[in-house]
Amino acid sequence: MGRFQTDVEVSLKGRANVVTDADLASERLILDYVSEEYPDFGILSEESEPVAGTSPYTWVVDPIDGTRNFAEGIPHFCIVVAISDGDQVVCGVTYDPVRDEMFAAQRGRGATLNGEPMQVSDREDIDEAVLGFDLGYDFGQAKHLLELAADVWPRVQGYRLMGAGALGLAYAACGRIDLYFHHSLSAWDIASGVLLAREAGGAVLDRATLEDATLFSPGLIVSNPSLVKQFLALTEGSTWRSM
After folding, report:
1. Residues in the annotated binding site for Mg(2+)
2. DSSP state of 108
3. Which residues, if any, are the signal sequence (predicted)?
């Protein structure tokens, strides 16, 4: 937070995909700490090369999710730290430092927001739902996502595009938005969010297979089972679903 709304060094990793020196500093702080505490764990972190461990567990880290927001002074970004066992997340946190909100989950033990139990939306009719999505950096798929959103728009209350996929998943997990979907996310974007939503009673599907999502599912559909079923019916046959 000491770096937020100050002059940060911004570099491009790809078209519209930025990294700042604050991302790198945050990552170094996190990785130094977890490596000292658990030196045998592997590491999968956005701004570093993967590190193989001797343990079955891997730290999965996004030092700042929503970096574009952070760089532009928009107060909507977070930090993700999770632990996976193979392709399954066993515990994870998404921390929003602006609002001092800690979304946390452990497999089989539920999900919490600042220590209080949370659950996905209990809305049962998609006509009453607010949906969230983000566009990512796959511009071909983003075009088809916008076409899908236009087709679905008359049946929902509204959309929210907030520019931080990990917070989008956390907001779906705690019921602030009713359903979240995306087509192009990395493991560090979704690591905690998959578990948060599942432990909060949600269905978390891989967009391509419609099976339960794993750490390496690039596209997700997340909500309560009823809204997921209705969303799938509404979007059946869409180009975005078939890509």
Report:
1. 46, 62, 64-65, 189
2. T
3. none
Contacts of 225-229 with CB under 8 Å at 24 or more apart are 226/124, 227/121, 227/123, 227/124, 227/126, 227/129, 227/178, 227/179, 228/179, 228/203
CATH of domain 126-242: 3.40.190.80
CA distance 111 to 103: 7
- The answer to whether the beta carbons of residues 162 and 76 sit under 8 Å apart is yes
Q: Is 204 exposed, middle or buried (0-12, 13-18, 19+ CB in 10 A)?
A: buried
Contacts of 122 (CB under 8 A, 6+ apart): 175, 224
- Per-residue pLDDT averaged across 49-61, rounded? 95
Which pLDDT belongs to residue 141?
86
Domain 10-117 has CATH 3.30.540.10: yes
Residue 60 is predicted with a pLDDT of 98
Alpha carbon distance 82, 221 (integer Å):
20
Same fold, 10-117 and 126-242: no
Average pLDDT for 1-17: 78
- From 187, 241, 201, 239, select the one nearest 42 (Cα to Cα): 187
Q: Where are the domains of the chain?
A: 10-117, 126-242
- Residues tagged in the binding site annotation: 46, 62, 64-65, 189
Q: What pLDDT, on a 0 to 100 scale, did the predictor assign at position 9?
A: 84
